[in-house]
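Hi R.,

Here's the chain you asked about this morning:
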Amino acid sequence: MKRTRLAVVMFSEISEFARLTSEHESRAIELLREHQTMAKPILEEHGGRIVDEDAGGMLVLFESALSAAQCALLMQFSLRARNNAADGGFRILPRIGLHLGDIWEEGERVYGNGINIASRVMNKARPGGICVSDDVYRQLVNKMEVEFTELFDADLKNISRSLALYELATGCESGAAPGSSKPVKTSLKKALQELNQDTASIRVSINRTQAATEGPPHGRKERLHPARRLEEMINKNKSSSSALTVGVILVAGFGSGLYFLPSGWWWVGIVIGLITTIAAFFDTLGSHRNLRRMRKKMPALIQEAILGYAKKCGGSMSVAEAAAVTRFTLDEVKRELESMANKGYAGRETAEDGLISYRFADKKK
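And the predicted structure, written out as tokens:
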């Protein structure tokens, strides 16, 4: 059944993916998988629905222009720390385009003029940048204190109507701005700080390429990220508790049967229930103990990861950059950075635009 509706359409494509594929296909596939691993949790948290994926790109639908813009900003910003440490030829620089328009939906298929325009808007974005149509700009201009740059000479291929385009500054753009342009408003860093605070519960899943695309080295057991280990322990604890409940129900059920309808067969069920209950009881005790230990260790593990990143980045970092690299949630990283700052291990630095960063002293000096 066909239906038409208004939606915010996002097109995202890794810049120069076709060239990289022709020169180094396996590496291009690794970068694509790494980008998808990073982007999908962020898209999900902002209500984005992926409707199509092709070589190097994604088509995503949103209900809100504000959610789409915040998602696009965080996608680009979370890649900055990763790209700073990467070789120039192996950086991930997506181009993102946003447009608000009518779309047609037929089952899983999505098409229409809104889709076509969003694709053309993306083509005007710089690598690492975000380009939005005037329809999206009008939804954002009074809601996000970010820098917009109006683009001129931005004719869209095969689009008949005139359309104003705006570049939403990320600080990650590569290359000169397309066409002539003029700034509209400023304060990007303040907006990014507000964005980080608003999305403090988002896990920014930035995996290193090898970890995201390859298995552990031959003969070596894979070492799970602490957050993943904690998640697995929680799931195991739930499973043990469920098994304990099942065992108790079996004993109670077969015991009631033996009481009301005495028969030797009921004892078989009772024995099975007792075995299940006893095994689940000790398993639950063990999982509870391990879970308590892991939760006590988590602050130290997060701080260890933060210090490891501090050594690589020169000692200064924002909450979002540390979260992107350590792969813990923003609120977990912020809590531990604040704890370390309160203990005197790190200093807080507040820029003129309000962006807070943390600096660890170099003990060699």
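The CA atoms of residues 142 and 215 lie 47 Å apart.

Let me know if you need anything else.
M.
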